[in-house]
Structure formats: structure tokens, C-alpha cells
Amino acid sequence: MCTRDTRTVPHQLKTLMQSVHAISFGELKKLIKGSVSDTQLIGELAKIAECVQGCWVVKSEQVYKCSEICRVRDHLLRMFAQTRTVVRREFVEKSKSTLPPEDVKQILTDIAVFVPSKHVWEFKCDSDLDFLSSHPGVKQFGAKKVRAAKKSDKSSGGGPSHTSAGVAKAPPPRALSEEDHLVHNFLKAMFKRFGVCNLSFLKQHLQRQVETRPPNAFGVLRIDTLDSLLRSNLADIAGELHGAFFLRNVEDERTNGFRRVILELFAADRKLSKSQVFAGVQQYEELGPLPASTYTTIMKELAYSKGVCWFFKTGNGGK
Predict the structure, then answer these.
(1) Residue 56: CA atoms inside 13 Å, Cβ hemisphere, count?
(2) Cα 284 to Cα 279: distance, rounded to the nearest angstrom
(3) Rounded to two decimals, what is the model's pTM?
(4) pLDDT class of 232 with cuts at 50, 70, 90
(5) Of 234, 76, 228, 212, which Cα lies nearest the Cα of 142?
(6) 3-state helix vs strand vs coil in the chain, percent to 5
(7) What does the mean pLDDT of the chain come to?
(8) How far is it, in rounded angstroms, from Cα 134 to Cα 102?
(9) Residue 76: CB partners within 8 Å, gap ≥ 6?
(10) What's the pLDDT tens digit per position in 258-296?
């Protein structure tokens, strides 16, 4: 014998949306029991869900209590309001997320599917143009939020963006003086040799080279300008973590992808095990498997090993 669903429509909607996270209006209507008009249903739905691409996505605060998760997830909804696919790394950087990789993956998995052939995440519901044309009065999440975001960016000058590892992105390119070129080359040589260097260590080595320079080498550099030159040039090519600097990018872009994830892991914890590194990388399906040789190269550049763990370098030329 069938039992009649006695739950109210709002109760049914809340339970359903918290379960599916994203659904088209047509599919949703099939699952709701009871006599209710489209207008009434949309009115109740708008209280707990946002309209994205003509489909309905449960509001972040309905499924998450963490304010940071809600903020980052709302940013993802704004991105999907403008496009069907999102690159995970770009999403993390643009949202300025401080969440661990597993939380980022959960947010994506709730409302998107990963497309391995394109290395992107695609919104899980087909765009419902019929719903949009039939209900022009329904506010689109992206339309109202994106305009506000653009206005805010314009009034604030855009503001600096950050990577998920909490490291400021490179500033806009600037004209380099002869002194800058010398310091750039010095820094690249130091990072190639030591991987991670702190400011004191860099200044000490640069000062030594200036003081003992052969004819025509470092001739334009003055001891009293070294600190400011180092800082400005570090901002151009280096990131900072745990009080030390590292080269922001390496030549191989695929290695850069793995390297960014590992830096993100080191930002959260200065000590990592091999299993933590591989588990962290696996959260980023678009990168594919981490080759053993690439793992070794990156870890030796950024960290030193002790027992079964890797420790992020202090930047003094040793450990």
C-alpha cells in the first residue's frame, strides 16, 4: 500500500535541494508531491536556491556552515553563471580560496563534473533556456552578483589577487634598469642553486659579490641600495612562504602545475610526507599522475628530507 507524502512543499524542496545540489526546474517538478503552481514553487525555491543557467542550485548556506566555504562556493556559482566550464586552478586563484584541496574538490563535485579530455569542470546541468524564456522575472544569480562584483573591482582598482598558497601574484611588468637586470640574474642563479632563500641570505651573498666583484661585474650596484633592489626584484620573480622566497615559476608548465599544489600543501603545513603530497596532487584530476622524477625534483628544490618527511627549507643555504 502506497503512503501519501505529507511533508509540506518547502520541506520537500529543502530536502531535495540539499541532496541533489543542482537540478533543472522540469526535473524538480516531477519529484515534488502535492498540488502547487509554478509561481508558488519558484517563490519557495528562491528562498533556498539560486538560479544559474536556468537551473536551480541550492544556496551555499543551506549545505555548509563554514563562511569561507560559502564564500568560495558563491564565487564558483558566479563563474558558472558566465560559462559552462571552469579550470580548477583559475577558480582557486580568482576566489582567493584558503580552503584545503579536499574541500575545493567537494565544492566542485557537488555541482560539476570533471571532463578529463579537456581538463575542466563542467556545470552538471544542461542550460535551461526554455525556463529562462518562460520566466523572465526570475533573477539570475550570476547577473545580479557579477555586476556588483565588477563595480566593486572598478572602484577598488581591482586589488591584488593571490594564489591558493597565499603568495601574491607577479605585479605588472615594469621597465628594468641595468641594476635590475644584474639582480634578476643573481636571484635566478641563487634559486637555481639553493631552491629557497631568505632575504638575509640573499643580501649577504649579493653584498659579498659586490664587494669582491671583478672589473666590470656588478659595477653599477651600490651597497646602500641592495636591500631595496632585492625586494623589488623578488616581487617580480619570486613568491614568499614561511619567511623565505622561491622562484615563482619554472620553465616547464606541467611541472609548474604540480609545483603550485605542493606549495599550497606547504603553506598549510611546513612538514609533509610523501603520501600527503601524492594525496594532495590527486585532488587535482586535471594535472594527471605525479611522475616520480618530477616529485623528487620539486621536493629537493623546496624542502629537505628528515626521516620519512620533507620540511620546507628555511632559506639559509642549508636546512
Answers:
(1) 26
(2) 10
(3) 0.55
(4) confident
(5) 76
(6) 55, 15, 30
(7) 83
(8) 38
(9) 86, 91, 95, 107, 108, 111
(10) 998 899 888 888 999 999 999 888 878 778 899 999 999
